[in-house]
Amino acid sequence: MSELYAVRRGRLRDRCAAAGSAASLVSRPANVRYLAGGAPPGAVLLLGPDEDVLICPGTPGPDPAEGRPDDQLRITVLPEPGGDTVVAAARAAAAAGAESLAVEETHLTVARHRALGSVAPRLRLGDLSGAVEQLRIVKDEEEIASLRIAAEITDQALGELLESILVGRTERHLALELERRLVDHGADGTAFPTSVATGPNAGLGRHRPSDRRVEEGDFLSVCLGANYRGYRCEIGRTFVIGTTPADWQIELYEVVFAAQRAGREALVPGAEYREVDRAARHVLAAAGHGEGLAPKTGHGVGLEIEEDPQLAPAAMGKLDACVPVTVEPGVHLPGRGGVRIDDTLVVRPDADGGPELLTITTKELLAL
């Protein structure tokens, strides 16, 4: 693994050198973990002209959720509690003779950016401009393997819930049970706050679980995901509780299912991000549900639950192979209910079988 992280850091170093920066400072936690293997709270990574250093506010602990720092990295712990690792990194870069330092401007506060200039006034500051995020878009097979396990854990947790009695239980209780089951099956934690929406609440986008109890005839919409070794997946499913679905529920479900299938089938290397969005959005619009749709059909996943690429109407760029994304169209009817179907997939060429579906819980409209 050390060689893998060294290769990643080498790619960033080459980009920075081409832009005229002799050193770079990575402070965004997901980016630190991507390049260093681990990201203890508050740690930053300095890629210097001579060596790379992980600067931590305290001694890194054994928490698996933080990852394990690369053995080949030098680790420096601040001598005094309360110190700023970003400031320490700037001092170290200046002491090493660097004349310029590229930083993640969008992650640093104004105060920390000013502090950099005050402690190292001769250091010319530049912006990494999302360079690490761009490197993270295409995943290697080690990363995809972690995503695959995260998806398996998520499918297990959801499958077990579907076998239990649901009527009379609250949305909040179901969400807590799902999160407990994720950890029981090996997740380091949740990928994001679990969503459970029932009845009219399923007609609200981004609903947070409430004390509403599940009733017969409800739509039950759930969205959850596991965090495994830092990698996060997402699944969303909609079911009907306790009875044969009503005609309007079947009709709405079939429309969203068709839109989700269209989006999945559009996931081929070379496809434009916005074309994937258009494929799903067109199906919903043609059925009369064009208003009030979510601003995007899906997004990338990895060390963060939402990262590039964005599958949205105005998104620029094309898909590559080995890019994991979600496809998650939905229609919400305020006061009635709604349907969301959400999968995590990996873009693969047709020669390799096409998109690899990681989340495999059934998409059949079940009556639970």
Automatic annotation (TrEMBL):
Keywords, alphabetical: Aminopeptidase, Hydrolase, Protease
Residues of the region (Disordered) are: 191-210
Per UniProt, residues of the Creatinase N-terminal domain are 8-138
Against InterPro entries, the record matches this protein to: Creatin/AminoP/Spt16_N, Creatinase/aminopeptidase-like, Creatinase_N, Pept_M24, Peptidase_M24B
Q: Which Gene3D superfamilies match?
A: Creatinase/methionine aminopeptidase superfamily (3.90.230.10), Creatinase/prolidase N-terminal domain (3.40.350.10)
This protein's source sits in the domain of life called: Bacteria
> Keyword Protease, does the record have it?
yes
- What Gene Ontology molecular function terms does this protein carry? aminopeptidase activity
Catalytic EC class: hydrolase
What name does the UniProt record give this protein? Aminopeptidase P family protein
Native species of this protein? Streptomyces albidochromogenes
